[in-house]
């Protein structure tokens, strides 16, 4: 996607350095963060300098690539086995990370060259899958649609194009008149900070709503469809996504509003049978008790809750397949019953 007329991906490699748009600085500052080795790339995943399932997957693959470049021992496979454990420990929920590291590890059984190619292919495929998700998802969007989305599943989260936002970009670029309701997405505000920044950058009409406003807007017939991304989809279609997604899906079902999950096949985890098996990440309570913003053009971090009270911060929830109208993938739009068939092809 373009920023100031220049094309960027959310993450890329320059020689042995992993380069990424610093998502913790947006929307106040557009800054590139550089990771010289896999430890630095792991830290960037952990502290969410790079975030979003697809971008985390690309970061994991690039961290494996940095390990290949720096490996001193002759036994590449065992070296990468150890590296994979370190990289996988950064964040537990998005399956794209484990998919990516496993893919590079498996490739190393064949040759070092093949492992390098696979590590690079993870990001390229993620971008291409986002483009195709856009094309298929656009077919579901009618002229005049008002679409609600949660969190950030745009190009920042998926290397390029995005998952939930890819159909929105495609619809807008094909001349449809659309409007987007952006859930702010507490506690880290990925919607208010990142999705809004992406949409503004692309010129797409939108407004930010508080996380509590979705059901109200739905009850007033102001939302025609909801599209969200995913961090892991179990083989029965239960979907882990940013905390708050489940509430939106329940409200959408109640008001008869189509609720779509957009995700590339690397987000489907056939080894996980149901959502109950998915590990949910709990993050620091600071993300709830404090917020970062601008004051007189200066970035400040403020304490905003009652001192002495603790805060509980599950970062994801599971939406049961029964609440999901369909899955927009790079191979087409499918229902939960068609997930296994998707992988047979
Ligand atoms: O914790 P994050 O910001 O890495 O969360 C992941 C997400 O961005 C969302 O859950 C998103 O909707 C799916 S990722 C394409």
Descriptive account of the structure:
This protein is α/β, with parallel strands linked by helices. Helices cover 37% and strands 20% of the residues. The chain has two domains: 2-130, Four Helix Bundle (Hemerythrin (Met), subunit A) (Up-down Bundle); 134-343, 3-Layer(aba) Sandwich (Rossmann fold), CATH 3.40.50. It has helices at 38-46, 53-70, 76-88, 95-108, 112-138, 165-173, 190-202, 214-219, 245-254, 286-289, 339-344; strands at residues 2-3, 6-7, 11-14, 17-21, 32-35, 146-149, 179-183, 206-209, 225-228, 232-234, 239-242, 259-262, 268-269, 290-295, 298-303, 316-319, 326-329, 332-334. The strands form five sheets. It has a seven-stranded mixed sheet with strand order 8-7-6-9-12-17-18, sandwiched between helices. A four-stranded mixed sheet has the order 13-10-11-16, covered by helices on one side. Helix 7 (190-202) links the parallel strand 7 and strand 8 (206-209). Helix 1 (38-46) packs antiparallel against helix 2 (53-70), helix 2 (53-70) runs antiparallel to helix 3 and helix 3 (76-88) packs antiparallel against helix 4. The longest helix is centred in the middle third of the chain and has 27 residues, at 112-138. The protein binds 5-S-methyl-1-O-phosphono-5-thio-D-ribulose.
